[in-house]
Structure of Helix-turn-helix domain-containing protein:
Amino acid sequence: MGPPPDLAPYLSAYYRTDVAPGVDVEDWLPPEEANLRTGEADIYEAVIGDGPMVAVPSAVLSGPTDRVTRLRIAGGTFWGIGLTPAGWARFLRCPVNTMANRFCDIGQSVADPALQAMLDTLRNEGDDIAAAAALITDTFRGLLGEPPEADETIQSVHLALLSEDVSSVADLAELAGMTSRTFERFCPRHFGFTPRVLLRRQRFLRSLGKYMLDPSMKWIGSLDTHYWDQAHFIRDFRTTMNMTPSEFAALPHPISRAAVSVTNANAGVAMQALYHPQRPPESDLGL
């Protein structure tokens, strides 16, 4: 479900995921922005990038990613809240690059205790969808406070990254009103990655998003206009997802396909990292 208008610049969605008892699912999730998640399951494991999967804490702060997250869940229910870059700056108030491609128990982070209390309540009493949504809204409204000094600039850069017309670091720096050197420092602090990585991630997600919305199309039909050719896209795919597009297409995607369906219904985009904070949600469907 989409956040109310006053929180839309800071939160991309509230979502609930249910995996039936006795059902064991595995998925390979594309890059995303930061999230708060909570839940319990018979099995709840994940890894960002390479390496073995590890147990995920019951209340998690997850930073932005630029690579695949491999996930396995058996029999569980989860709540999550997507954070925009401006949302991280407003509610976490620390450099986001300290959590890029990482997740941790929220109790071991700098998050306000009210966020952990919210996640604990959602985990233990989250069956009433309306009450849970109200709790999330009330908690974040209570933490709004004064916006950080960089709030407007973060939002402007975020909107620029969503535009297919912006293709260079110089364009982004100019929109932010910064020198290239200053902008190279600004982006990791507020977006988790360098400007070049952010542009690469967005063109990749725009392409993958088109395919996820219509898996019947060929990959060549989903390519973003900023790719030189299909080989360029395949290189990006390997770097990001640790596999080829055809290998990805052959795998089951029960979590990501459900998320794509709901994100598209709510926000008109395929993925959280493509969320446009100035686009009003079209529905209140939840996952």
Remarks:
- The longest strand covers residues 11-29.
- Residues 62 and 103 are 4 Å apart (CA to CA).
- Confidence is low (pLDDT under 50) at residues 282-287.
- Strands lie at 11-29, 35-48, 54-55, 59-62, 69-83, 103-105.
